[in-house]
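Running low. Got one?
___
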Amino acid sequence: MRKSFSIFVTLVLVFALSACGKKDKSTEKNGAVTATSEATAPAATPGEMVLIPAGEFIMGTDDKASLAYPVHKVNLPAFWIDKYEVTNTQFLDFSIKESYAGEGAKQGRDWRLWFTPDKAQFPVVYVTWNDAAAYCKSAGKRLPTEEEWEKAARGTDGRAYPWGNDWQDNRGNTAEAGYRKPMAVGEFDDVSPYGVHDMLGNVQEWTASFFSTYSGNPKRDPSSGQSHRVVRGLSSNYRGKYAHLWDRIASEPSALYAFGFRCAKDATPEEAAKASQSRQ
């Protein structure tokens, strides 16, 4: 088994190195990667983060049938969030560094079963909430709260999709695109007002928050409480045209589905001030 895993790791590293040779050069500063000036758009850089400025945004919906009812305003401090979903290669590096097998290994549904060298830049899936939280902690980050995730996806104007309120085919990896499977991060024009990618489609994502009925909603969902975590976004099998960025589902933390995740972290006072100045 150890020999097979070593061969697997070698194949992944070879693929990753060859892919890196095709990327634009970049420099790192304050945990974020900034591409150098090139004639073509830079390739996706997993681990790159986007600074979301402090302030108020519109959360939820006025649709009384939705689990996201009612619409309300939330004021958040500045924070960082991953520009892309965590990839297979990133999770593999973490699992080797920390000798972390993943909770699914005990059930024969390990995340490695969905990882081949050609999927190095695909979002990792079939990880539990604890797996996702452990990765983020190892990276000096944390899972984003539900509120942080929604602000990073919708901006401050309460839009339904990352690009606005009108549906546009093939801008995200939802069922309409026809792939019906995750694709490499950053390949679609599914980009939020803050420049965060794949918030609508590709894979559904774990958040840090427990699932609870929003204040003001007369219908208390049975999953509300301290037993389920909030999952956001859509997978490639869901039709995005009939979904929205405020949609939310509840899942048991031990669930092993095609869920992925991205990380977040608090902004320092200096970073928060810089973000505030950039808005003026």
Observations:
- Confidence is low (pLDDT under 50) at residues 1-41.
